[in-house]
Amino acid sequence: MRRSTFTTPHTQHAARRGQRFEVVRQITEPDATHDAEVLPMYVIRFEDGVEIEAFPDEVEVTETEKTAIEELLAYLREQADGYDRTGNTQKARDKDPHPFYQRAATFRTWANAVKATT
């Protein structure tokens, strides 16, 4: 799973944190400028056209992050489903939306936002 925005623990490209990018190519073979122990790396291009080389943790979602995202999504969906079960009929919801349905919609919006950013 690839990130949708750049993140880095390093200071070299810290100003790029949060910027959208696309992967141009992956570097998998050692060469004159890339030792085997630093590979794989990625060449990425930001929306302003600047290309840099990035480490996997700057481009890919880690297993820990992936687990946290999946747990958050499951929680948000569970909350939305729970609120759906506590309301009235669709007709009543259309006429006077119950706060529970508004909360369910909010949880679904949050879940979609989390999914879209990963």
Q: State mean pLDDT (0 to 100 scale).
A: 80
* Helical content (DSSP H or I, runs of 4+): 40-55%
Describe the main β-sheet briefly.
3 strands, antiparallel
Number of helical regions:
4
Explain how this protein is built.
The protein is an alpha+beta fold and 118 residues long. The chain has 2 domains: 14-59, no CATH class; 63-116. Helix content is 42%, strand content 14%. It has a 3-stranded antiparallel β-sheet with strand order 1-2-3. Helix 2 packs antiparallel against helix 4.
List the helices and strands and how they pair.
Layout lengths: L20 E7 L13 E6 L4 E4 L1 H4 L3 H22 L5 H6 L3 H18 L2
Antiparallel strand pairs: 1-2, 2-3
Helix pairs in contact: 2-4
Features:
4 helices; single chain; 2 domains; alpha+beta; three-stranded antiparallel β-sheet; 118 residues
In short:
The protein is an alpha+beta fold and 118 residues long.
